[in-house]
Specification:
globular, alpha+beta, six-stranded mixed β-sheet, five-stranded mixed β-sheet
């Protein structure tokens, strides 16, 4: 399929534009230009660790790179010399998951967080005169107040005194170096330090409609570089949370569980907001360089982009029930067909005399190419990217009729590709197409097809019947209606047969049937509560039966590395006791559980918050095997998005359209970290291997893969992505 130009044009035109518009910062645009990204190739591997490299980060001017590893060492590397400067034995007793330079300290202070639940601060000036392997040095500060693994650290630009740490114990803590350099271990008899900024031990939501009541094991956090009062966190549920630090309560201790504080905004793609799976969680959250967008990476899912600012007018929010409304047949109000594209009109109403006509012709060509691919059943992936280019790259340039055609074509292509969540994306497109033309046959027909793929046959039938009414002579619609009716009739017959199979062996239980996910989720919540309440409280749970489960799981270190040769089989016994009392008193430590009857009352009284929906989705990689996998913005302008993958590759997409630009092999097993240099076209990656890979635009020819002929052939890009999609679909969702 013929390629089309990237939005940033070519480097020659960009350099020429400096003479026309001196306000344009060409250096920012050139740093990660598409022509440079497509020439990225491996320059060097840095050797110096003896275990998985779980964290890499640059200092503010890009002269130094810091890394943390399973070997419990922090390494400091020179960017100019591409060599190891210092290797510090931190004294951590667990894997290091995060490490940072502290700003405005002349790069002398560095911090680390690890699986031993400790945060350690080191002063590099104490290393003067020592050799390369500097051995063990005493930390300048040691914070032991977390009770579970510390997964992420955050620092504020320009602030040398404060550090934030996010832990799986459900707390985000603020450490001020001026107030103290140590704190007693968690659970000690001494007075516990008051450094809890966010107490989210009762903050996890199983779905948007459910009130928060479980421990939110924090996996990631970030502070906006442009508005440092904004704090973003993500953990073991589907929702990233944005907080304004100016609106939070004073720091507290964790002696008593607190209700989760009010956040400024929730972020979650609409189709993920009601999944209700305990295994579903975020692995990384981050702000864009300008602070106007956030990037979310999910375990067992894709990477998603969301807008932060309401002022842009692009922010799309939804509330509980909107997802089901999207799938329910109701008349929609069509947009005005006679309105010209937004970008075709000046504020004074005069037609714009620029290259709009050329862009519209390009969009028509891309839509025709996509329709031809749909008819032939070939190049489906590239045809979807062509539609993305039209709708996400030039949506404001084209007339509603062409947008409608592109929405319907992309929906059909997504339903044919059938990658994870493609039916949900098709539903969005069909809904937008119906808003343009409520009598659109294709929009109704493809909506029925998408709902059928999701197993929502009753809703699918409504749209199929509507499509048949819109085009009575169309045989496809008639066949679709008949097929769905047969499925519904078969399901009803099966239900009746089960009901008439005879009397039950025992009295039926009241309440809903528990899934394994429900049981494990509740068990996890009770386990979290166990750290804060006496044993008599912990033994109180909600159900009375014993379950034996045969299981097969991969085990490797703290992160559950997915290696086929490392499999353990066994059995899991769970005893769940149903209480006769329908209320649970809050314990002395403020534990937050509630049984089924009060849960129903809580849910009825709870008013879910509005949530910001996705703006773009990035697909092709696989995030299942580790829960430290990053997704990052590349460059000072953040025009590209990158993520590691479980297949040992890392991927680069165009932020605006989601178009895949580059796929590179970066590890023998898994790439977890992708960090771009602050100013140069230079990327550092790390993962399960003990080395750090350095990538520069040195390939002889631009290509989607490594150096054109080097590495896998372009034809194998699709094969690699399809393999990743199969892994995603075999994820825990099939088990829990």
């Amino acid at each position: 399929m013929e390629e089309w130009p990237f939005h940033n044009g070519n480097v020659h035109n960009l350099l020429e534009s400096r003479h026309i518009d001196s306000r344009q910062n060409v250096d920012h645009s050139l740093q990660m230009h598409s022509s440079l990204i497509r020439r990225l190739s491996l320059e060097q591997e840095l050797e110096g660790h003896q275990g998985c490299v779980n964290a890499v980060a640059w200092n503010s001017n890009g002269s130094l790179l810091i890394s943390g590893s399973d070997d419990a060492r922090i390494n400091i590397w020179s960017y100019a010399g591409r060599k190891l400067l210092h290797s510090i034995d931190t004294g951590h007793s667990g894997n290091i998951f995060c490490t940072k330079f502290v700003p405005e300290t002349s790069d002398e202070l560095v911090v680390s967080g690890a699986a031993d639940a400790e945060v350690r601060l080191f002063n590099l000036s104490r290393l003067s005169g020592r050799g390369l392997n500097d051995g063990t040095i005493s930390p300048s500060a040691l914070y032991q107040c977390h009770t579970k693994r510390v997964k992420k650290l955050a620092v504020e630009v320009g602030n040398p005194n404060v550090l934030w740490s996010a832990s799986e114990d459900g707390t985000l803590r603020q450490h001020d170096f001026r107030e103290g350099t140590s704190c007693p271990p968690a659970g000690s008899s001494q007075q516990e330090c008051r450094n809890v900024l966010l107490d989210l031990r009762c903050g996890a939501k199983r779905s948007l409609a459910d009130p928060p009541r479980h421990n939110l094991a924090l996996k990631s956090c970030d502070i906006s570089s442009t508005r440092p009062h904004l704090l973003l966190v993500g953990g073991n549920d589907a929702f990233a949370r944005l907080y304004d630090r100016r609106m939070l309560l004073p720091l507290t201790s964790c002696q008593k569980r607190m209700s989760p504080p009010t956040c400024v905004n929730y972020f979650c793609p609409m189709h993920l907001s009601d999944r209700g799976r305990s295994s579903f969680h975020l692995t990384h959250v981050t702000f864009s360089p300008n602070g106007e967008a956030v990037l979310l990476s999910y375990s067992g899912e894709h990477v998603y982009l969301m807008d932060v600012n309401h002022a842009t007018g692009c922010l799309v929010q939804y509330t509980s029930g909107d997802a089901s409304k999207l799938m329910t047949f109701t008349p929609v109000q069509s947009r005005l067909e006679h309105q010209p594209p937004v970008s075709c009109v000046f504020q004074n109403g005069l037609a714009r005399r620029s290259n709009i006509a050329g862009r519209i012709e390009k969009c028509r060509m891309l839509v025709e190419i996509s329709k031809r691919s749909l008819e032939e059943g070939t190049n489906i992936f590239h045809a979807i990217e062509a539609c993305n280019e039209v709708l996400d790259g030039h949506g404001s340039d084209i007339w509603p009729t062409l947008r409608h055609e592109c929405f319907c074509t992309r929906a059909a292509l997504l339903l044919k590709r059938k990658w994870k969540n493609d039916p949900h994306m098709a539903i969005r497109d069909c809904h937008n197409a119906r808003r343009i033309d409520r009598s659109s046959f294709r929009a109704h027909y493809y909506m029925a097809e998408a709902l059928e793929q999701l197993g929502k046959h009753k809703e699918a039938l409504d749209f199929a019947v509507a499509a048949q009414c819109l085009s009575p002579s169309d045989t496809m619609a008639a066949k679709k209606v008949e097929k769905i009716k047969k499925h519904l009739a078969a399901a009803e017959a099966e239900k009746n047969n089960k009901a008439s199979d005879g009397a039950p062996r025992s009295e039926p239980r009241t309440g809903r049937v528990l899934s394994l996910s429900d049981i494990l989720y509740r068990s996890e919540a009770n386990s979290d509560a166990s750290q804060d309440g006496p044993r008599s409280e912990r033994e109180d749970s909600d159900y009375d039966e014993e379950l034996e489960l045969d299981f097969e799981t991969s085990i490797s270190g703290d992160e559950g590395r997915d290696v086929e040769s490392n499999v353990t089989s066994g059995s899991l016994n769970l005893r769940i006791h149903r209480r006769g009392d329908s209320t649970r008193e809050t314990g002395a430590k403020g534990s937050c559980g509630s049984p089924s009857s009060s849960s129903q009352n809580d849910r009825a009284a709870y008013q879910p918050e509005a949530v910001t929906d996705m703006k773009q989705r990035y697909v092709g990689h696989c995030n299942v095997g580790t829960d430290i996998k990053q997704a990052s913005f590349l460059g000072q302008r953040g025009e590209y998005v990158a993520s590691g993958s479980d297949d040992g590759r890392w991927f680069v997409w165009e932020k605006r359209t989601g178009r895949l630009i580059k796929m590179l092999l970066g590890d023998d097993a898994v790439v977890n970290c992708v960090q771009c240099h602050p100013f140069d076209c230079f990327v550092a990656t790390s993962g399960i291997d003990s080395t750090i890979k350095l990538w520069t635009p040195t390939a002889a020819v631009p290509s989607m893969v490594a150096g054109g002929s080097a590495g896998p052939e372009t034809s194998n890009v699709l094969e690699a992505m399809e393999s990743n999609q199969r892994k995603l679909c075999r994820n825990r969702e099939a088990i829990l």
